[in-house]
């Protein structure tokens, strides 16, 4: 399969000190790692593309490890995650789906075997396109307090023959989460859902 060619990367760390109510004891931290890569399938229909997922795995693992470092270096501090891709206009939505396995499994591996499926989104767009990357708890998708998102973009990406791939991690629930549902403390850890 083709070589993964990275044009640029961006690492974003956001700290949330309050949401209008009392400040939490520890600020919520969200981080996004973005990579802009050449789309080897841009401009044509290619029937066999799945092999490129294997080529993307080292990039996914590198990005996941950089996120953990950006959030303090302790994988145990990470409680939420998500992934996404923006495909340039000479590509197709299915090219963004190539990020599912290398992005999701990389985060699960780097975090020591997180159990929940990594939520995902993708779209086709030009430079400056924004993407809301969904976030859920790393071990149980039904933990309502961790339902969140992080908006990501790069002003000059993706160009028509590129893809922007993204990973997001968070250190906790939404600030002031209080709408009930399964609590993180009550996770059974059997199926990645509850």
From TrEMBL:
InterPro entries: AA_synth_put, BB2672. Pfam families: AA_synth. SUPFAM superfamilies: BB2672-like. It comes from Caenispirillum salinarum AK4. This is Amino acid synthesis family protein. It comes from the Bacteria.
């Amino acid at each position: 399969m083709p070589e993964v060619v990275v044009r640029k990367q961006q690492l974003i760390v956001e700290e949330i000190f309050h949401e209008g109510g009392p400040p939490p004891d520890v600020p919520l931290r969200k981080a996004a790692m973005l990579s802009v890569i050449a789309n080897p399938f841009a401009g044509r229909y290619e029937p066999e593309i799945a092999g490129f997922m294997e080529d993307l795995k080292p990039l996914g693992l590198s990005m996941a490890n950089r996120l953990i470092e950006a959030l303090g270096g302790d994988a145990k501090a990470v409680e939420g995650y998500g992934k996404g891709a923006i495909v340039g206009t000479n590509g197709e939505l299915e090219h963004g789906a190539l990020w599912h396995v290398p992005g999701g499994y990389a985060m699960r591996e780097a975090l020591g075997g997180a159990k929940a499926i990594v939520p995902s989104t993708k779209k086709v767009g030009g430079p400056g396109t924004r993407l809301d990357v969904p976030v859920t708890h790393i071990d149980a998708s039904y933990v309502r307090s961790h339902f969140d998102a992080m908006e990501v973009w790069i002003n000059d990406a993706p160009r028509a023959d590129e893809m922007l791939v993204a990973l997001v991690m968070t250190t906790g629930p939404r600030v002031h989460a209080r709408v009930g549902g399964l609590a993180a403390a009550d996770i059974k850890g059997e199926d990645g859902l509850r």
